[in-house]
Amino acid sequence: MSSRRQIKIAGSLCAAAVTAFMVLPGAALADDGPGTGSDEGGKQVDAAPAGVKLTTTLPEKISADNSTGQTQNLVAGVSNQGSKGSGPVILAVVGFDGLVVKDVPNCTAIPEGKLPKGSNSGFSCAIDNLAAGKSKSYKVAATFDLDKTGKICLPVQSGDTKKTFWQQGPVPFGTTSPSPNAPVTPLLLGTENKPAAPAGDKGGDKGGGSDQGDLPPTGAGDAVLPLGAVGAALLAAGGAGLWWTRRTEPGVR
Fold it and tell me: CA nearest 6: which of 204, 148, 212?
């Protein structure tokens, strides 16, 4: 579907820095997953170590309950398609606009004051090492306001938070054919949501304005591709994530 290939992004680098919080020995941070899904809206930011190739995936289709807004089948995956182990890395799951991340099991909630600019919720997931050819998957509990567009972002950072190896999004979920009378509304990855509210009502244009740019193809020649990692500061204690964002468009703060 050609309309799904035009991805709108918020225009800022959604990279996370996480504090040195403790992970208990033997604690399961995520389940080994098949690595299935789509990396649509993803791009490399900083070069990963030799032999390491990190990417993320999201399902091509989820759904939102029309009564409660709760999403179904939303799973965030991270995989290492390289030939060597990744070492410590951090995956973050961040919600924008109408998509609010409520919980990611075994991950740490980002405090409201530390979230990336423009986001509304987020969780940081620490992984000690992702072996070559292996994947991790996280079931994401979220809600979706069908009167708005909703986006999600999956950045992957080095364990010391100095580099962002990969970032998927902020990429939208949505539908161009709302079904307000059905129990659930199917939402497609890479699709701007068309609210069911009548034209001129409050729903719809928030979060999907014309100031958002098209996601460029990944490559060294792309002028708007984020360059370098976002700086990070580590807190002395606790499990809170400290986030820094930056705009890649000239004149945008």
Answer: 212
